[in-house]
Amino acid sequence: MHSYDYLLILAFFALVLLPAPMLGRFYYRVMEGERTFLTPVLGPVERICYRLSGVDPLVEQNWKTYALALLAFNAAGFVLLFAILVFQGALPLNPQNMPGMEWTLAFNTAMSFITNTNWQSYSGEASLSYLSQMVGLTVQNFVSAATGIAVLIAFCRGISRRSTQNLGNFWTDMTRATLYGLLPMCLVLALFLVWQGVPQTFAHYMDAVTLQGTDQSLPLGPAASQIAIKQLGTNGGGFFGVNSAHPFENPTAWSNLVELVSIILIPVALIFTFGHYVKDMRQSRAILACMMALFLIGGATALWAEYQPNPTLNIASVEQTAPSEGKEVRFGTTATVLWASATTAASNGSVNAMHDSLNPLTGMVAMANMMVGEVIFGGVGAGLYGMLLNVLIAVFLAGLMIGRTPEYLGKKIQAYEVKLLVATLLVMPIGVLVFGALAASLPGPAGAISNPGAHGFSQLLYTYTSATANNGSAFGGFSANTTFHNLMLSLSMFLGRFGYIIPVLALAGSLAMKKTAPQGLNSFPTHGRLFVTLLAATILLVAGLNFLPTLALGPVAEHLSMGF
């Protein structure tokens, strides 16, 4: 590693951690309807939105009504996006005359984008019209991220309120999350990307002649606006097929750094938003410390592994360094590993290199980041409510060890809450192990694997892990655009999204109705080093019991077979 590699890592953490507390405070004020510096400009727009939609922002909902509104909105979004994709050939803003999508691929894509997964079994510049990219995908990038924020805020209210059934209003929360929280930041980022050279145009693709004298079609389109929300909303779906490895999506070292920071900026800020809700910033710092510890352990392991020379190449030179195959050489190995770690820890799924080309242990870290439930920062909103589920599990385990009724911030965790927590623990194993086993055992679906042996198994394992974790990245050698995988992966994405959201809202409703007991000397503190250690151990233990055997058959076996 060179000095600029260390500077990149330091700049990344500084640009994330320094503004996060202020942004977290801003999100708290926005979601609670308090005045901010944007209120004079966006307040009238917010009121017009409520007036046009017939929403009374002062009327709050219980968890069931909140969940029904959320499900109805997402169902409507799915139907609309599916229709746009299937009929795009007959719709406007299609200068390249792209035909409509095959229905199973359209089904998979629509499910992918409403669940904030953004799994793509197609290449955007070769498959989608400008209308599909803007009105279809970009809109869902905004509202799926806003949905995650809304669920988190409802959960925060459930933990912080007492003796009430009200969790807020879904329509109000989603409007505020989009209007104040996502749109302004995306506008700034999109303008920055245009300045760096990312296209934002409705023009036809351009024909050019390469240095070798061959003809090439250069894809264009309204890319900057979609790339901004794909990063800030932890969506990850690229405008072009190779995502942020494409020079039109990620043209410079500055765009690479800013896009990288954008992946986890809002998830980290929302940790501080939680602290404002519970009126105890120590809780935020404890959760952030656990996330940072897990991220640094995985990132350091991945960085070490990726800088190891490949012994199967049998190159005698002592100067042999990290393999460059599959890397974007403009950015180098450190930027590749940092991006791979951040995008899988944050449920983003964008890539600036091919994960299929990573060394086995680096690929294992990327999978492990997702297998823990995308709680190391995680998706916008989704990562923190996933982490809070693990917090409640850790509190329950601590209560068993010390012989006390478990409680978190004065709220007792009883049988009903434990049943809901257990239900969430089943989501990842079912989506990855059960659905993945079906795909591996059937001759037709197994044909999607392009490599023999352990690496081929890793391709399939990564695919179903990514879908269930709502990540969207992939080992590029897996041919997922088949009827079976399009539908099975859709089921995995649906389970990975709503298999958490419904129990989280039910938990929020149950906790909100409880009274808050005063914490005494015998209460287990949830903000110290001991609890951070217990929380990290709980996350690793649950993931290890579920997935260590499959990792041993995939990346670990591949690593050992290479002769390290």
SSE arrangement:
Layout: H1 3-17, H2 20-31, H3 39-53, H4 63-86, H5 103-114, H6 124-127, H7 130-160, H8 170-196, E1 206-209, E2 215-218, H9 223-232, H10 253-278, H11 281-306, H12 332-345, H13 360-371, H14 382-402, E3 407-408, E4 411-412, H15 415-425, H16 427-441, H17 443-446, H18 453-468, H19 483-513, H20 529-561
Distance between the termini: 21 Å
In total, the number of domains comes to 1
Proportion of strand residues: under 5%
The largest beta-sheet arranges its strands as 1-2
What is the count of helical runs?
20
Number of beta-strand segments: 4
Radius of gyration from the CA trace?
A: 23 Å
Structural class: mainly alpha
Query: What is the approximate shape?
Result: globular
Helix content: 55-70%
Average pLDDT confidence is 92
Low-confidence runs: none
**Major pleated sheet:** 2 strands, antiparallel
Helices and strands, in order, run as HHHHHHHHEEHHHHHHEEHHHHHH
Describe this entry's structure for a reader.
The chain has 564 residues and is mostly helical. The protein has one domain. 64% of the residues lie in helices and 2% in strands. It is built from 20 helices and 4 strands. The chain has a two-stranded antiparallel sheet with strand order 1-2. The chain has a two-stranded antiparallel ribbon with strand order 3-4. It starts with a helix and ends with a helix. The model has no long low-confidence stretch (mean pLDDT 92).
Provide the descriptors you would attach to this structure in a database record.
564 residues, mainly alpha, two-stranded antiparallel ribbon, 20 helices, 64% helix
